[in-house]
Amino acid sequence: MPVRRVALVPAFNEEANVGRVIDEIRAVDPMVDIVVVDDGSVDRTADVAREHGATVVRLPFNLGIGGAVQTGFRYAFEQGYDLAVRLDGDGQHDPSQLDRILRPVLADEADIAVGSRFAAAGDGYRSSRSRRVGIRLLAWVVSRIVGRRVTDTTSGFQALNRRAIELFARDYPHDYPEVEATIMVSRHRLRSVEVPVTMRERGGGRSSITALRSVYYMVKVLLAIFVGLFRRNVVPEEGTS
Amino acid sequence: MTPIAVSVIGTIASLALVVVVLELIRSRRLRERYALLWLLTGIVLAVLCAWRDGLNTMAGWVGIRSYPPAVLFAVGILFILAVLLHYSTVISRLSDQNTLLAQRLALLETELSTTSSTR
Known about the structure:
The structure holds two protein chains of two kinds.
Chain A: E1 5-11, H1 18-28, E2 33-38, H2 45-51, E3 55-58, H3 65-78, E4 83-86, H4 98-106, E5 112-116, H5 129-146, E6 158-161, H6 162-170, H7 177-187, E7 192-196, H8 211-230
Parallel strand pairs in A: 1-2, 1-4, 2-3, 5-7
Antiparallel strand pairs in A: 4-6, 5-6
Helix pairs in contact in A: 3-6, 5-7, 5-8, 7-8
Chain B: H1 4-26, H2 32-50, H3 54-61, H4 69-118
Helix pairs in contact in B: 1-2, 3-4
């Protein structure tokens, strides 16, 4: 029996890339429903996505990546999907590798599978020195917390089953969602695996993270992690507060 | 001892604050939950101004002899910090609710457009 599945594509001002991303997903999996979450773009992202046949969920203003992604999970949950994959609208996640992250979830070996740039040995991911150090440190901290080796803590290339969709629909971190979500998943005792993937370069030269900026980023992420550790696990149901 | 003129002016100003707060509640521009805080502030200030030896007496309780107004500053700064912290929690809650509303709105709009197009 085919499972009902949806591809969630968060996009913010990605009119140049989002159409190609949609076409590539459809080429790989013609049966998948594609939902673009337009995070308050000021360009033609929503129109382009509709022209390419995707369902568009358009946020009235920019919520940031965490809020946008959670919107997608809410959609997937409310529409009753059994399976969701998430790919970024800038095209850095290659849809031809979808089957790799889908396999462990389809085989019910994991509730969530995350594509990792660093899981494969000797992978030629090129980045600045400061950034590599930061990525290592973050991976080390997160691995210690969840008690399992995590190599790529910031990857948004993910496949999720219904349980994971439900968790993220109810509660998803705002600021550094992937890092915190990794820890959340382990605290909720969901099974999670990393799958080696290769990612493409982003379209534009937007990720200009300088050394000082990476330090600032690291401090903020680590703070968010440790605050998250002391946070109560219980999520209030909507409308109770 | 506070000079009598300062005491009178201070008391009038504090009572004016209380009146302003009451007016804001009456015209529904201030919710009761915040109003209580500001009413208390006005009353405390009024008492401190009217009770001319109050500051010296209270400074004496905590052992400050050289400069009694230090008590006032310390309490005032702590009070302002508490109010700011409270506002941070209010802002956090509001922004969470705002996010939720934006998401709900977007999902409902999508649902509406798909149901109307299939009809």
